[in-house]
Amino acid sequence: MNSFAFQNPTKIIFGQGTVRQLGKEAAAYGNKALLVYGGGSIKKTGLYDQVLSQLKEHGIEAFELAGIEPNPRLSTVHKGIDICRKNGIGFVLAVGGGSVLDASKAIALGVPYEGDVWDFYEHKATAKDALPLGTVLTLSATGSEMNSASVITNWEQNRKLGYLSVHAFPRFSILDPTLTYTVPKDQTAYGAVDMMTHVFEQYFNHTPDTPLQERLCESILKTIVENAKLAQEKPDDYAARANLMLCGTYALNGGMISVGMDQDWASHDIEHELSAIYDIAHGAGLSIVYPNWMKYVYRERIERFVQFAVRVWDIDPSGKSDEDVALEGIQATRDFFRSLGAPSTLAEVGIGEDRIEEMAAKAVGFGPLGHFKKLEQADVAAIYRLSL
């Protein structure tokens, strides 16, 4: 196990009806808030009215930035920064899923910065401050409600880049599982894929002597497998939605399940190039890429893939070679994603091979990807081709 330091300052407020605590929490950060949300589903569900009522009750004036894209655009982030600066806004409130939360983090980081917030994502500058951020989560997926990461798309450059800053942790996040009842089947699927791959990125490593962390990862994976289909079949199943929501939060919150372990993240970088160019859902891209990354790298530490197959997918290793067991586990992963309705090939989302080399070159623009197996441009291109 590696040495580590772990700290997470986000306050999690979990359970049915917790939106009623929003106003009290937000009031600690001033009397002007930028309310950030997506395509308007929060208005259809009544959440929008609840949020405005809470803010008004506690004397907070709300300014709005609607229309955050599924792959949030830098141009939209710029709009939010301008609204905050022109109106002296000191608090950002994100109401939505991971895309809304990511855009809100970028806005919060960008307001006190004199340059372009994109500098952070291109590693040209380091954030020194940010506006305080609160969130109300409506989609179980990214873990953005309890981590310091955000991913933004520069559509003009076809670049999708992530940035981590200690200043981007939400001050509080309200997690009410009932707010996810209206999430459709496909988004439930993509959320489950996203949170599972977050765990995979931490689980597949070469760090020795980490039995606790490995079992934490495995328990989250099994809980997602047990609850994702239930949530699809019965959207208002509180237990299923609550378990998925907590899994998403625990899967990626700065290291709670993986302290002391190396991490990979190559597959996320590979997928980012797909959604930066083709604007596909992040979870859809991961459901295509990740099983093929597995197939490309599993021999680097086959015993971890055997353990994964046995512990997560309950595959009986009796009389089988390690190779066969590992491959069964990879196939079980692919089959589960398919069973949720997520795609397994690039062809299914209308992507061919014409821009593979371009995407592979961009993916390694900051250097080789990953830790489990260092991937150069040729490796990334090979994974794209396995995904066709």
From TrEMBL:
Residues 9-177 form the Alcohol dehydrogenase iron-type/glycerol dehydrogenase GldA domain. PROSITE patterns: ADH_IRON_1, ADH_IRON_2. One of its GO terms (molecular function) is butanol dehydrogenase (NAD+) activity. Keywords: Oxidoreductase. It comes from the Bacteria. Residues 188-385 form the Fe-containing alcohol dehydrogenase-like C-terminal domain. The keyword Membrane does not apply. InterPro entries: ADH_Fe/GldA (IPR001670), ADH_Fe_C (IPR056798), ADH_Fe_CS (IPR018211), BDH-like (IPR044731). One of its GO terms (cellular component) is cytosol. PANTHER family: ALCOHOL DEHYDROGENASE YQHD (PTHR43633). This is Iron-containing alcohol dehydrogenase. The lineage of its organism: Bacteria, Bacillati, Bacillota, Bacilli, Bacillales.
